[in-house]
Amino acid sequence: MKILPYDEVDPDGVKVIDWTSFRWFLSPELARELREKDPWLPDHYALYAVDDDEVRAQVGYCVVDTDTTEGLEKVGFVWGVCTRPDSARRGYSTALFEETHRILLEEDVRFAVLGTRRSWVAYDLYRKFGYRDFGHFSSAIKPCSGPAETDVVCKKGLTDQDAHGIYKRYAEDLLGFTHRFEGVISIREMNFHDGPYDRHSYFRDGEMIGFTIGKSTDRYINLIDMCAVDIDDVPDMIAALEKDTGTGHIMYDWTPRRAIIERLVRSGASEIGTTWGTFMAVDLTGELDIGGIEDLYGVGDDLFTMSDLDAY
Description:
This protein is α+β, with helices and mostly antiparallel strands.
């Protein structure tokens, strides 16, 4: 078995493994464009286990800037973990994880993180490498039966530049994924092939106060990110979104911040407290357990911020 970077393997083999695992289609052109535009992606893109000239497994990672109580901390965000079904349980993913962790430690990156689902087979593999569930992520759903009165105006559309400016103001006193780069929304749209997101901007007296990013059907809007300079404006933003779109349901998926959930509940939403989705972390040096990592990121003080836009 060899461990090779993307540019040294058969791209058709990568297409097969990604499509069978995620229904995700990675072409050489997309891999090149993502590396050009995403500052966190490494030059080698991802690592692959190759045996008998066949791509057997994949593990990617990015080194991402985060904020902790002790200052800037670079973390390794692991993504795209998959194995061909006919190559499962042969040690390919284990070898790729060991190599990924070795590289991260060489780069003085002590924390590795990833997103997954507790119902997936890989969850036990991650625990084998010391990953543990980090924080508590909640979701919320609001049936729409008529919007509340609000002085906030919702407008369809949002530039990457405006989103970046609002996010910096929102995240100014928070910890975690606070170094989101400008253009991340467009890169996520390009990466996941499911068309443009529904981007909405919110205004009070002509001044932009927040934004939402989501995907919609004729029955609901699923928000993957919601950002308000003053989070007390969240109920008004939800009312304005309902009024503008006339949607049947508004859902907000996967936030670690109690302050956001509480304001969604004020808007008439119900909290979904536990989901199969989870975020996991490990200290590769073995110095901190999961509680110590959570303390470093202010989880108990509701300071840790992250959304689907920050995930890989």
